[in-house]
Amino acid sequence: MLIKSRFFKLMMLLERSQSTFMKTVLIIEDNQDIRENTIEILEMANFKVLIAENGRDGLEIAFNDAPDVIICDIMMPQMDGYDVLQQLKGHSSTENIPFIYLTARTEKAEIERAMAMGADAYICKPFEINELLDEVNRFFD
């Protein structure tokens, strides 16, 4: 009985310590299917995920919750991804949060524009799971 009790306490401590060190990723994506798939991938990789369906909501979450990484679409209602990045880079509390575009826009000019604005990575849809996880994880190594 004592062994079971110690084991249970150890497991509780491990769970608590993992959640304390869990990294937070904000996903700003208007497409529900892509949003849900991305959430599932990141949660299975042990990330805490915050969700916004548009750029305005994403900015509010970024300013209030200071995620460790932001993944953002470009083409969205209310505020596009370029405006989101510009706003984030204009505030000292969010200017250094790694920012990844996840978008269907594959033109070279779009990629160059995004990187010139300060994006840290650019992933084209459809994407591979490993590609997404590699880009997110490189900010924690």
Describe what this molecule looks like in 3D:
The protein is an alpha/beta fold and 141 residues long. Helices cover 50% and strands 16% of the residues. The chain has six helices and five strands. It has helices at residues 2-20, 32-44, 55-65, 81-89, 108-117, 129-137; strands at 24-28, 48-52, 69-72, 99-103, 121-124. The chain has a five-stranded parallel beta sheet with strand order 2-1-3-4-5, with helices on both faces. It starts with a helix and ends with a helix. The model is unreliable at 7-20 (pLDDT under 50).
Reading side by side through the largest sheet, how are the strands ordered?
A: 2-1-3-4-5
**Unreliable stretches:** 7-20
Tally the helices: 6
The total strand number stands at: 5
Mean pLDDT: 88
Topology order in helix (H) and strand (E) letters: HEHEHEHEHEH
- Rg is 17 Å
User: Main sheet, how many strands, which sense, barrel?
Assistant: 5 strands, parallel
What structural category characterises the helix and strand content? alpha/beta
Brief sketch in words of this structure:
By secondary structure, the chain is of the alpha/beta class.
Layout of helices and strands:
Layout (H helix, E strand, L loop, with lengths): L1 H19 L3 E5 L3 H13 L3 E5 L2 H11 L3 E4 L8 H9 L9 E5 L4 H10 L3 E4 L4 H9 L4
Parallel strand pairs: 1-2, 1-3, 3-4, 4-5
Keywords:
141 residues, alpha/beta, five-stranded parallel beta sheet
